[in-house]
Amino acid sequence: MSIKENILNDNKGCVLNNFKLINKEEIIDFIKNHNGLLELIEKAFPLVRKYFPNYSYCLLYSIDPEIVNLEHLMLFINGNEEIYDEDSMKLQMLERELRDLKVSDSKVKPLLLVDV
Length: 116
What we know:
The protein is built from 4 helices and 4 strands, in the order αβααββαβ. It is 41% helix and 19% strand. β3 (71-78), α4 and β4 form a beta-alpha-beta unit. By secondary structure, it is of the alpha/beta class. The protein is globular, with a radius of gyration of 14 Å.
């Protein structure tokens, strides 16, 4: 079964079910076009939950309007404004761990951006 079929059929085992998918079709197409990106998300999600267990998460496919061919998958952690400074420190620790993740294709790492 393809990634698109898994997601569109709401496969319970797909890591993407842990996120609100803002622009679902674009996200699926982007993942399909970048081998290793789904693996990165699968390995990143436990780390996101480790640092931000009580928040919800969403994914957004984004194109930079000023730079040609610059596109990303943005992982947003829907944080609490009252503890933004604390969350920012946690985000820095999370980003360090994400940089050190072992994935089969490390070229996909810059394609996933994380923010609170």
